[in-house]
Amino acid sequence: QVQLVESGGGLVQPGGSLRLSCAASGSIFRVYAMGWYRQAPGKQREVVAAITSGGITNYADSVKGRFTISRDNAKITVYLQMNSLKPEDTAVYYCNARPPPSLGGPDYWGQGTQVTVSS
Questions:
Q1: pLDDT bucket at 1, cuts 50 / 70 / 90
Q2: Whether 60 contacts 69, CB under 8 Å
Q3: Which residues contact 118 (CB under 8 A, 6 or more apart)?
Q4: Cα 89 versus chain centre, distance
Q5: Which of 16, 5, 24, 7 has the alpha carbon at shortest distance from 90?
């Protein structure tokens, strides 16, 4: 059974930091692109950050300079370090795994973890 399990969400004050983790089952995820998405109440899910199997990263403009995505292929885990958090970062954060075109197949999603930024 393919699984993505997120952890690390919670309540933090504005300006604070959190680190999200997403542990994947199955060594095949080492060749997958991984990403973090978020969905705030009443809004569409949006991509926050992504990282290729080779470590190339990409960020939404709203989080550039504050968030860092990284991956540990030995642990088959992807992280999202979130600094200087703002109330508008409040959302459910989802981990995503996307297969390379050569493999095909569906994306995989985690169950989501709540991040709340509030004083």
A1: low
A2: no
A3: 11, 13, 14, 87, 90
A4: 13
A5: 16
Residue 46 parent element (H or E): strand 46-51
Please tell me the total number of residues recorded for the chain in this structure: 119
Scanning the structure block, which residue is given the tokens 């989080």? 63
CA distances for 78 relative to 51, 86, 118, angstroms:
9, 22, 25
Task: Look up residue 69 and give its two tokens.
Answer: 């995505």
Show the CA angle centred on residue 100, arms to residues 99 and 101, nearest 5°. Answer: 115
- 37 by Cβ neighbours in 10 Å (0-12 / 13-18 / 19+) ranks as buried
**Across the strands, what pairs with 55?**
none
E strands present in 40-88: 46-51, 57-59, 67-72, 77-82
Taking residues 18-30, what's their average pLDDT?
A: 91
Distance CA 92, CA 83 (A): 17
pLDDT tens by residue, 64-102: 999 999 999 899 999 999 999 999 999 999 999 999 999
